[in-house]
Write a structure and sequence with these properties.
Layout: H1 2-8, E1 14-15, E2 36-41, E3 47-50, H2 51-55, E4 60-67, E5 72-83, H3 84-91, E6 99-104, E7 108-113, H4 114-117, E8 123-128, E9 131-132, E10 142-144, E11 157-163, H5 170-173
Parallel strand pairs: 1-5, 2-11
Antiparallel strand pairs: 2-3, 4-5, 5-8, 6-7, 6-11, 8-9, 8-10
Bound molecules: the ligand Nc1nc2c(c(=O)[nH]1)N[C@H]1C(S)=C(S)[C@@H](COP(=O)(O)O)O[C@H]1N2 and molybdenum atom.
Amino acid sequence: MEANRKDRLPPGQVLTGKWPVLTYGETPLPVLKDWRFRLFGRVGRERTLTWDEFMALPKVERTSDIHCVTRWSRFANRWEGVPAKELVTLAEPLPAASFVMVHGYGDYTTNLPLEALLEDDVLFAFKHDGGPLEPDHGGPLRLVVPRLYFWKSAKWANGLEFMDRDRAGFWERNGYHMHGDPWTEERHSGW
Ligand SMILES: Nc1nc2c(c(=O)[nH]1)N[C@H]1C(S)=C(S)[C@@H](COP(=O)(O)O)O[C@H]1N2
Ligand SMILES: [Mo]
């Protein structure tokens, strides 16, 4: 168990059983009737999905660990949602598209390499540990990217912008790393 725990905990992280809320600003409360999810940028097909259209996409369950750059980790979170690769397929990205800006209500943004979205454990989640995803944790819908620090997992997700080059999102503009791998401690850029 101890060995397992050590293999599972990235360097510099501390395990917690709690689930802290980390939001910059207020918790947005999108009304489902008005909720929209946009696929845009370097795509063959710009489109906007309603909540019902999004919920009609294939769903999966995945269990994964959270690693926050503020040094807490939380093991074995059970997520239910739509695989991110379903959205990429719908968007039909142009060959030039190699990065994605994830957008969230409240004007949050975070950048990812397009390949990172195609991993099997990456999903847009609406349930956590069997219950609805709470508003403070990004409900009705958040991105979950388990292999990167948790700031990449945009809460209140409402769009994917496909880009032909990497651009910094909100925290990345404020000093966080462009990539954010917890195993190599890509915490900050250049300091
Ligand atoms: N829209 C939005 N998404 C966000 C944030 C935010 O402020 N706004 N904070 C990020 C950061 S820094 C972290 S650590 C996690 C925190 O998620 P939690 O509050 O569910 O623990 O959400 C990320 N996603
Ligand atoms: Mo964070």
